[in-house]
Specification:
Length: 141
């Protein structure tokens, strides 16, 4: 089935690829030495029970996520699957409109409405059962 070409595209670019890690400092060091990556932003996000480091890749990021609480979704992910890709963040112009479009398309939403994200963004998550096994984060800057 071909996408409806009359509808404007909701995604404007890939915001980030999130990688769950057990040791944030070790991951930062490895990306720095192996790829010359530099930290653009580092933040502890208490609400999500994680500490993150964003590494610049052109206009996008690699987001390294490390749990700060055993109950965080990232801690549970690491227990079940080990280190690796956790989710993909798609940049959108309007997170609420993008979430409404996902809801209308029948997506199972994790966040019923947009919420505050790191670095002053507005975000919402879509369950991987609705997106061919990929956890999606909608990110409005």
């Amino acid at each position: 089935m071909e996408a409806n070409r009359s509808e404007p595209q909701t995604m404007t670019e890939i915001d980030h690829v999130a990688i769950a890690v057990r040791d944030l400092d070790a991951a930062i060091e490895w990306y720095g030495s192996a790829l010359g990556a530099r930290i653009a932003h580092r933040e502890r996000v208490e609400r999500d029970g994680v500490e993150e480091a964003l590494l610049c890749v052109a206009e996008s990021y690699i987001q390294l996520l490390c749990p700060t609480a055993a109950s965080s979704p990232v801690a549970r992910f690491l227990e079940r699957k080990g280190e690796g890709i956790h989710h993909v963040g798609y940049r959108v112009a309007d997170c609420a409109a993008a979430l409404d479009r996902m809801r209308a398309a029948g997506a199972q939403l994790i966040d019923a409405s947009p919420r505050a994200g790191s670095r002053g963004t507005t975000v919402a998550f879509v369950h991987p059962r609705s997106a061919f096994g990929t956890l999606i984060e909608l990110v409005q800057e």
